[in-house]
User: Fold Transmembrane channel-like protein from Sinocyclocheilus anshuiensis.
Amino acid sequence: MSTFLAHFHFWVDLEEERLKKKAASLTLGQTVSLYALRVFLNLVVLILIGAAFYGIAQATQFMLLLQYLPSMVITASNFVVPLLCDKIALLEKYSPGTTVILALLRAVFLRLVSLGVLLYTLWEQITCKGEISNKNCKLCNYYYDQYKCWETRVGQEMYKLTLFDFLITIATLILVEFPLRIVVDHCSCKLTQLVGRQEFLVAPNVLALVYSQTVVWTGALFCPLLPFINIIKFILFYYCKKITLFQNCQPATRNFRSTTSNFFYLLVLVFGWMLSSVVLLYSVAKIHPSYGCGPFRLNSAMWDVVPGAVKMLSHTSKEFLFYIGSQKFSIPLFIFSCVLLCYVSALTSVHGKSVTLLKSQCKLVSS
Assistant:
């Protein structure tokens, strides 16, 4: 396995060096044309993503008439727009690694911000755009007439996003990937051979899992069964992806180092966690709970339950909680975190030097 990985990284290095030499040999006119093309394609991508955001915002306005419309629009945009961005990235003539990372950045921006647009539009409607003095929100501090149980409505939207994400995956497997495999295997015309089997790309599939996890984090408070539903969805996803990988797909033609994208996936996961944390903290601390349902309907905010629960604890438990929140605990924790961060940074530097040395050796061997 290590020999295979060494050959794989060596091949990727050679491919990147070839593209760098090709880029260095371009004339001034060719370079200007290439950058102009990239700027134009980036504008096209921004227009596509902006159109998706506008469609999500407009679909949320009609939620009362067509309750599944926002989830359908978000799922469709998350499926169609990344495919278009992926094809556009091929025209920009970057290196394989840069092409994959650029396509992922656009897909991440689309997925996370589309979720943010949905949540922001819901917040505008539930809280009358934050204006408690509005006639629709003055009585109950939220739009009671349309959202008698706003927590349930938010949970329903997260549930519908999870459901439609699962349905679009199953529909793609049954209606696209299987028929495409059958046509390519049994038809010898030039068009089908040119299209070929679908490629199984690891990066977008990992990104889809990160997006699903972000939806679960956001909706777990409002839909407690959502994590259990997501576990079942992931199990079914595993077997569906396994079937399509071995039966319907061909090896990817664009290779890149997985090590360069591991940090990127973790960073996206952190951004998703931050987005869901902001939503949950604001909902718990600021928005008035629904009067019509829920265990918090008698409180002015969900957070009011926490001080009451702390007062009911024993003296020892309260002292322990107060100690964790004091400077006596936070300062040693901060020092320990700094030491741990310095150790990880030094370890990363050592590994980086080793990688640089191996790259130099690969270049010497290739020359």
About this structure: The CA atoms of residues 152 and 222 lie 6 Å apart. The first strand starts at residue 198 and ends at 199. The first helix runs from residue 2 to 24. The chain has one domain: 1-312.
